[in-house]
Each structure stands twice: as C-alpha cells, then as structure tokens.
Give the backbone structure.
Amino acid sequence: MALATALSSSAEKTGAITPEMLDCFKASYQDNASNRAIHNALNATGINKIAFNEKVRNNFDDHFSHKVKTQGITDQKASGRCWLFTSLNMLRAQAMAEHDLPQLTFSQNYNFFYDQLEKANLFLQSVIDTSDLPMTDRQVEWLFKNPLSDGGTFCGAIDLITKYGVVPSEVMAETEVANNTATFSRLLSSKLREDGLRLRSAKTAGKKDADLQEQKKEQLAEVYRFLALALGEPPTEFKWTRRDKEGNAVETKDYTPESFFNEYLGNDLKNGYVMLMNDPSRDYWKVYRIDYDRHSYDGMDWTFLNVPMDDIKKAAIESIKDSTAMYFSCDVGKFLDKERGTLDTENYDYESLFGTHFGMDKAERIATWDSASAHAMTLSGVDLDEDGSPKKWFIENSWGNVGQNGYLIATDKWMDEYLFRLVIEKKYASPKILKAMEQKPIALPSWDVLF
C-alpha cells in the first residue's frame, strides 16, 4: 500500500510521466509490418549494419590529387596514446626525408614512460598548490577526478620530446602494458589519489612546503617503480646503426636520447608550429588557453587560435602540397565505417531507421557534450576538384591495418562537422593567422566542455 501511495503521489507532480501520457505514447507507436520488420532486424543485427547506406558503397573513390608519402602504419593497440603515435609519426616522416633514411620508427613506449611520470608530478604538485581549498572546490574536484590518463595533446608530446629526447623503437620496445593500458592506468590513478590525500593531510597538519616536496619526491619514486616494472626502464645511452636503402650498415654510433633527438630532429619544435581549432560555439580569431591541459608541471597548456574551417583547410592544403603531413584530432567515432575505412556523414541513415531527425549543428553538439575531440591522426592527403576545392581527405591512423590498410578517407563534409584541432608548421599559416596568434590567450577552465 505504501508503494502504491508513493507512486500515485509522484505521478501527480507536474512534469512526471502519467498513465495518460503513457497511453498516448503507446497509441503513437504503430505496431505495423514496417516497424515489426525493423524491430526484428535490430533484435538480431547491430544498428550500423541496418542503417548502412548502400549508395556510398557504390560511389567509393580512393583517388587523391595530392598525397604526402607516408612511412608505414603503427598500432597503438588498446591504449589512448594516439596523440603520441601521431606526433612521432609526423616527426619520423620529417627525419626520414631530411636524412634519407629507408626506415625509422621512434619508440612510443620511451616517451610514454616519461609522460606518465610527468603527469603524476603535475597532479601531485597541483594538489599541493590547491591544498588550502576544500575538496568540494571545482578545481580540486577536477584534479582528483583526472589524476592521470594515457590521452594527450600535441603540445604535451612536444614538451616530452624536447625534454627527454627520442629513441628508435628497437631501443625500447612496446610492452603488454603499454599496448593495453586500462588496468595499469586505473591502478596508478588510484595510488595517486591516495597520495594526493596524504599530501593534503600533511598540509593540514602544518607541514612546511619543504616537507611536502620531500613527501612528493618519495611518492614519485614509487610511481617510477610502477612504470619501470610495467614499461621497462628508459635507456640513458645506446648504440644505433644507420643503414642505407639496401640495408647495409653505414655507421654505428653511441647516442643518448637527447643527442639522437638533436641529430635527427634538431629543429625548434616548441616555436615552429601553430595550433588551430574549429569551435563554432566560441568567437573566431581569438586565442584560447586551457588551464591544466598539459602533460608536465613546467610544460605548455594547450593554446590555440579558433578559426573557421575554410582557413583550416587552406593551411592544410598548402602543407600537403608541400609534402608535409599534419597532426589533427577529431570525433572519429561519428559515422565511421571501420571495414571500408571511411568517415562520411552519409555512411549511415539513422534518421530513416528510427523515423526521426538529428538536427543539432556543430556548435550545439559541442555545447551539449554530444561531440568532442576524441582521437588524433595524421592528415596526409587531399583530393581537389578542378576549382581547387577539397572533396575528400587522406588520413594515416594508428590502429594497425583497420580500414584502408591502416588509412582512413574522410569526406570534406565530415571534416567540416567533426574536425577540431589541426597543427601546422608556421610557414603554412596565413599572415592573418600569425597576426592573430599574437593576442593574449583567453583562459578557459580545465573542465571546459570541449576538453
């Protein structure tokens, strides 16, 4: 009786679903042959198979008017290290071209080790910096929700590479944990949250900053052990043999990770690139900076210029025509056909399947958490029509041989809707872009909707 009374009382509240409303819902659903057929199909088959648009299969074209020579597919496996794979893939193409190397792959595992160590320090030091604030403060809450992850940005990759150098993949190979990060990340995050609480308690107990720093140092030593056990300990020096295109040894030298970087990637990575964003929910031609969107305490926050898609495309086309691939990130899960390796807003007809309309534009999808930058890849080709306008784009991915033998093809319309970030070398930026980058950045909080 008490349950019935409670349900009756709840239903009387304005805004609740009433029995009368439920009757209307039932009446509006037509239990006809068409809906029964759709239900039966969905009961046995996935949504994407039922919604697949056969017309796009028949009109598939894999020709590209301009394509950067790529160097072979890599595979991040079950990890979120796309940002690191993409950054290193972009840089290895540069190194191979400049030094006439037949093959070279940088070790993702090496830089990932230091990424996790630096992120652990960023979290612990940030906990110290905010230890006078209550746990309910939004910044403190965000820190403990996000102590560490295997995701990242181009800015973070550049900080790591310039600070710790690079090594060839054969010098520090991938491990099972590097390829499958979920359990390890969960355990390390749990340990860091515990360490963060200990630091806050020590501060409350009156410990001085020097004592907190010593406590943090001991905690980081434990993190280092975690990483060394799971990923291996990074080399401080190594031998490497350079070979010609026939595989013959040219020279064998002793290197450190820093000297290897200086010899093969000695350019100014921190000042040589421009970070562009397309976020129509904010003002264009403004520079924005995301607080705490960095990998190391002494590193760069992600700072970008927000521009219309036409300006992003112009810069991308200039770069590709000059045989220079680019780092970009997007909402890769939207309208992706993994089997064919295509990103096309026409791949699936969800509206016809469910008899509805999905009407949000890009700005509305961003504002409602419906779409965000989720994956980084290498933009390496474009197909232009007779007027020089892009029709589709060629993308080097880091998922092994998924799609077009590891590559994806995106329509220009898909790029308009789901591309977010693009990193270009400064020489491909227009004077308007370079001038706009001189502005003082507008600070955005770490919990910003797009990040």
Observations:
- The first helix runs from residue 2 to 11.
- The longest strand covers residues 375-384.
- The domain at 82-264 is CATH 3.90.70.10 (Cathepsin B; Chain A).
